[in-house]
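Translate sequence into structure tokens.
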Amino acid sequence: MHTIFLEHRTRPGARAQVQAVWNKHVRPAVATNPGHLAYIYAFGVDEDRICAFQVYMSAEEAQAFLRSDAYEAYELEVTPLLDGPPQVEVLQAKWVKGLS
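Result follows.
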């Protein structure tokens, strides 16, 4: 498994717009991607913070998703709404409930 935790900071007041762009491009792509074993999209307490926790089958699956048309369209549309690039941390999942 390949696990990623990332944090986006949106421009002030743009979190709902970012979520709309995510819903348009990323959500349907993740829902149909067999390489994603788990995906959590969450808002932080801070109104300009969005976090995502992703579990992929492998690092190769993660890289393939980042090269997908859906993700590229998302990045193009969402970049002006963000306050810089996301903070990304790659983790080594040792156990995930429901996944073997």
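Note: Residues 15-31 form the longest helix (17 residues).
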